[in-house]
Amino acid sequence: MKFELLNKDASSRLGRITTERGVINTPAFMPVGTQATVKAMSPDELKEIGAEVILCNTYHLYLRPGHKTIASLGGLHKFMNWGKPILTDSGGFQVFSLSALRSIAENGVHFRSHLDGSMHFIGPDEAMEIQSELGADICMTFDECTPYPASYEYAVKSLALTTKWARRCKEWVEDSRVQWFKNQALFGIIQGGIYKDLRKRSLEELGEIGFDGYATGGLSVGEPKEEMHEIINFIAPLMPEDNPRYLMGIGDLNDMLAAVEAGFDMFDCVMPTRNARNGTLFTSSGRISIKRTEYKADNSPLDENCGCYACRNFSKAYMRHLFLAKEILSMRLNTIHNLYFYIDFFRKMREAINKGQFKEFKSRWEALLQ
Q1: Residues that are catalytic
Q2: pTM for this one?
Q3: DSSP E strands: which ranges in 31-147?
Q4: Rounded distance, CA 76 to CA 325, Å?
Q5: Among 368, 326, 351, 344, residue whose Cα is nearest residue 272
Q6: How confident is the model over 13-70, as pLDDT tens digits?
Q7: Where are the beta strands (DSSP E) in 260-345?
Q8: Out of 2.60.130.10, 3.20.20.105, 2.40.10.10, 3.10.50.40, which CATH number does the structure's domain 2-269 have?
């Protein structure tokens, strides 16, 4: 993996990540394909809207259908017929958020499957083995996602585990006896909760180990927006300039604008796809709910400034009808639109950075999103 910093507009950055399977222009939004599929979208549709990378999840694919099954079928790219880059989350957040029972040990986490209640164990070795066999282009270290609220004492212990596991992930990758493909990049994950000194310590410890990119995790787990933004603005300028900076699990447009202004490059979130399935759609005039009565006989497109398939071909009235009738096509059209909007939003953001106009871009959108 190669990262190039192409331009800067104050602290916001324009970059390019080059992998064996394709280029990712940054700032970039990664649609979430948790279980080897972006819900309601085909791979061809993702390509048509301009997606350059998607995120899949280690925890879910380990439980079903199993990483060894996927490996036996040619790896994740072949399994889901996606030829562009894939980033895999290590599963640490899902163990934290989904498992009904978990027990954290020095070497990993014992947890109960949310699917059938069976007991499992994932540690740094297992997380690396799973991601290696999936064949992801960018892999993440296994971390302990510090909950909110958490005492300083807990956050210190949690951070120590995250650093220990990150070091073990790097050692596993460098072990000549394991099957780790040279085209796979490894990102370290910064933890530390809402404590700035711990965030700084986490970054310094990861930097000493050395990774291809650095991610900030453990945000959007219940903390107030003000505290989230404080950590975002604190940590981004400290992160290495010559590596991609990834802010994990953040998808609110205002939050992403703030994070790009701080210097982050990569984002992922289920927000556009989940909102689409619930009938909430993003437009150039702001967010709307397609179920509203005012759209019952509205023959205009959802967004006259949008070039997606849904806006080119269907009216608000039709999309409202589909949603209220609970038709499958409603989920598909809504998802196509929302993801197109997000991908296009980032394309326009990159153009603004390149022209030295990011501040104006951010101000215009913040006024619209109020």
Answers
A1: 89, 268
A2: 0.97
A3: 54-57, 86-89, 102-105, 108-112, 119-122, 138-140
A4: 35
A5: 344
A6: 999 999 999 999 999 999 999 999 999 999 999 999 999 999 999 999 999 999 999 9
A7: 266-268, 280-283, 286-289
A8: 3.20.20.105
